[in-house]
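Incident log, structure service

09:12 report received: a user says their structure output differs between two submissions of the same chain.
09:20 pulled the input from the user's history:
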Amino acid sequence: MSVRGKFKLAESTQVDYNPEVRKLKFNAVCNDGTEENAKFHKYTPSGEISMTVDNPSASEQFEIGKSYYVDFTPA
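09:34 re-ran on a clean worker, output below:
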C-alpha cells in the first residue's frame, strides 16, 4: 500500500546553529483550477510537512513555490 500527496514548498529557512542546515516547510497543494491539483485537494484539503535538512546539496534541490510529490509507503 502507498499513498501519494502533493505539497508545495512554502518556507526554507536557515537554522541558527549551522548555516548549512535548512528547515523546509511544505503545505498541501490547493485547488488552483488545475485538474491535478483539484484531485489532490479533494482528498487532502490541508496538510503540512516540515523537515530539517543537513545536506546542502539536498536542500538546494528544493525551490520555494514549487510543488513536490510525497509518497508514503510502509517501511
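09:41 both user submissions now match this output. Likely a transient worker issue. Closing.
09:42 reviewer note: The chain has a mean pLDDT of 95. Helices lie at 35-43, 56-59.
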